[in-house]
TrEMBL record:
InterPro entries: DNA/RNA_pol_sf, Domain_X, GrpII_Intron_Splice-Mob/Def. Residues 437-538 form the Domain X domain. This is Domain X domain-containing protein. It comes from Punica granatum. GO terms for biological process: mRNA processing. Residues 666-685 are annotated as: Disordered. One of its GO terms (cellular component) is mitochondrion. Coiled coil: none annotated.
Length: 685
């Protein structure tokens, strides 16, 4: 008796996982980069894709538990709860900021909310709580859906909160594009990161997305109030001295805190990168929404750049009417001739988060006019009240601070070589400027003082790093080496990279020397350097005559090796990175996407085939198909020929065997019998 197979259950989470979540995301990126200017009206189909919800769950679990959870390790109850969360979002039953009723909980959350007392419930409802686990999953899903749509159409002038772009990208763009600009407008629009009107965000979103369900979901995240604890000045309690607390041992599934070197480096974040937007319950969506709102400012500035550009035929660098030309001097791209009334008027613009930088080559009056127009635009579009103080105009000779780097110029007197209209080579001794991007030593001292590594301004004095007092010398040196390596990478594109990194190494080395002097009671830094050497690589706790030599213990594996501090001499610091930065630069993932879209286009494939035919070449695909076709066409005759050869060989071998046994061919079988034997061999084959 046959049993009929039951039909698949549409509500079974296992039946909804048809594809991998990463492949679904990749397809979304490809579709949006193939048509970057389209208006998307149906995103609910992506909201229904359960693969995206599983991928979002895995991402949030990484932040929650500190380890990656494979799809096969997700338990069935968790998948069912995740499916319930997805259905609640699709049916408009999901509420942001829930405190007691959850569709899905964190794997770490073992709280029984139904058994809580009234006092604990009141505390949950009235005090500041971390973002619920289910809210973070919904934020991740929305980010995966919306990011490819807007990344394909964002301006190339914005660099913050975007994949593949960072502060280093801004510095390289400034070094390439801002050479020769005399006047700079530096603006701080970071107040828009603190909060913005809901209507402005929704209006900016609806320029490219017209899906009502997604728009309503983001609108509810912005409108729903966030419950925070408010403490009046009179209710502030005096700080009590904390008693000694025993160090808590972390669980296996508990995320590890940031190491000390990474926490210290985060303290070095420049002013422009320090503030991160957080609007309502949007969470990780807030940076993307910020770029969506400020993208209109980027587009407006791009039109102003084209309007402002006025080339001059007497200029040896910028004299192309289109304004999209490369720099004239590729061997010395930072150098441009001095400006004047008969020179090219040009400007450029970059934005990093809420901070903008505009460079103007021309008279100061042009910069003042542009500033006035910018104030009017921000007032009309963002209802942001700006004035001349918030948008100062500064000359390059004063030094422009941006991302803790100073933009300045050096006047040089080279010989300019260019071709005149008649084709004659002209050589002139001219005056030009060289753009210099240097790390601000003043800002570096300020950041170290904020982290309590030193005190004083003119003569900075290192202070002991007591936070590492209970750590071993090997662990402390390793932490500081990681910090110094990160600082070397941060100042990679600074002209004074060697100087500033050597200063950082001096502060760290002095701080550790004072720490070790206090820890091992060695009285002074000089004593520490005498025992531990200049880079503090020798052990300080071993005293002469009380234990074997350190090298013997290290050879036997009884002590851990101590790495000396790096970059204790300026010659050990790597050189500044002056690698060329192309004008049409794009991140690696965008270049891969655009190349894939180009190769996947049938028109491109047809052009490549026609080009191959014209040159008389054969593509590898055509060559392989030709080989296969020839093999199939000649396969049957070849098989018959090999069969006849094998039959003949078998007959000859049988005849030789009979002769060896004493049978003569004449005394043996007749002709008919020989044919019968040959037929027998054929039958055997």
């Amino acid at each position: 008796m046959m049993h009929r197979r039951a039909p698949p259950d549409p509500d079974d989470p296992a039946n909804l996982l048809k594809e991998d979540g990463v492949s679904v995301c990749s397809q979304m990126w490809i579709e949006n980069f193939r048509e970057p200017d389209r208006i998307v009206s149906n995103l609910s189909s992506y909201l229904r894709r359960f693969e995206l919800w599983v991928l979002a769950y895995q991402k949030v679990c990484i932040d929650e538990t500190g380890s990656y959870m494979p799809k096969s390790s997700i338990q069935r109850p968790a998948l069912e709860d995740l499916l319930a969360l997805r259905n609640a979002v699709l049916d408009n039953r999901f509420k942001w900021g829930a405190r007691l009723d959850f569709f899905i909980k964190s794997p770490k959350d073992k709280t029984d909310y139904q058994a809580l007392s009234k006092r604990k419930i009141k505390a949950l409802l009235t005090t500041t709580q971390p973002t619920p686990f289910q809210d973070r999953i919904v934020q991740e899903v929305l980010l995966m859906i919306l990011e490819p749509i807007y990344e394909s159409s964002f301006s190339q002038k914005s660099f913050a909160f975007r994949p593949g772009r960072n502060a280093h990208t801004v510095l390289r763009v400034i070094r390439r594009s801002f050479a020769g600009y005399l006047w700079y407008i530096k603006g701080d629009l970071s107040t828009i990161l603190d909060g913005v009107k809901v209507g402005l965000v929704i209006g900016s979103l609806m320029r490219d997305v017209r899906d009502k369900r997604v728009i309503d979901l983001i609108k509810s995240a912005l409108v729903t109030p966030v419950i925070t604890t408010k403490i009046d000045d009179g209710e502030k309690k005096k700080k009590k001295k904390r008693k000694y607390q025993k160090k808590r041992v972390l669980a296996e599934d508990e995320p590890k805190p940031d190491p000390y070197w990474l926490e210290t480096f985060f303290g070095f974040a420049p002013e422009e990168a320090e503030k991160r937007p957080n609007w309502g319950h949007c969470g990780i969506l807030s940076p993307l929404l910020t770029n969506i709102c400020l993208d209109e400012l980027d587009r407006w500035m791009e039109t102003k750049i084209k309007e402002f550009y006025k080339p001059s035929k007497s200029d040896v660098i910028w004299n192309c009417p289109e304004g999209e030309q490369e720099h004239g001097n590729t061997s010395w791209p930072e150098f441009v001739p001095t400006s004047g009334p008969d020179k090219t008027r040009k400007m450029d613009y970059v934005r990093y988060g809420g901070h903008i930088l505009i460079g103007v080559r021309g008279p100061r009056a042009d910069a003042a006019t542009l500033r006035k127009q910018l104030i009017e635009f921000c007032d009309q579009k963002y209802m942001l009240k700006l004035d001349n103080e918030t948008l100062p105009i500064e000359h390059i000779t004063k030094g422009i601070m941006f991302l803790d780097h100073v933009l300045c110029r050096r006047v040089v007197y080279p010989t300019l070589r260019y071709t005149a209209t008649g084709g004659k080579i002209i050589s002139e001794k001219g005056v030009g400027t060289l753009l210099s991007v240097t790390a601000s030593l003043k800002q570096c001292i300020k950041q170290f003082r904020k982290l309590k590594f030193l005190k004083g301004d003119r003569d900075p004095d290192p202070q002991p790093c007591f936070r590492m007092f209970h750590a071993t010398q090997s662990h402390t040196n390793a932490q500081m080496n990681k910090f110094l390596s990160t600082m070397v990478e941060w100042y990679r594109f600074a002209d004074n990279r060697k100087k500033v990194v050597n200063f950082c190494s001096y502060i760290i080395r002095g701080s550790l020397a004072k720490l070790y002097a206090a820890k091992y009671k060695l009285r002074s830094r000089a004593k520490v350097y005498k025992i531990g050497s200049r880079n503090l690589s020798r052990p300080l706790k071993e005293k002469k005559g009380q234990s074997p030599e350190y090298h013997n213990l290290l050879r036997m594996g009884l002590v851990e090796s101590i790495d000396g501090l790096q970059y204790t001499r300026m010659s050990l610091v790597p050189e500044t990175d002056y690698s060329l930065f192309p004008s049409n630069w794009r991140p690696d993932h965008e270049k891969a996407l655009l190349e894939y879209i180009t190769l996947d286009n049938p028109k491109t494939q047809e052009e490549q085939r026609s080009c191959i035919r014209e040159q008389g070449l054969v593509s590898p695909q055509d060559y392989i198909s030709m080989l296969v076709w020839n093999y199939k066409r000649n396969a049957i005759p070849l098989d018959q020929l090999s069969l006849l050869k094998s039959v003949k060989n078998n007959a000859d071998s049988d005849q030789k065997l009979l002769l060896s046994l004493g049978y003569d061919k004449g005394n043996g079988d007749s002709k008919e019998e020989e044919e019968e034997n040959e037929g027998f061999h054929v039958a055997q084959l």
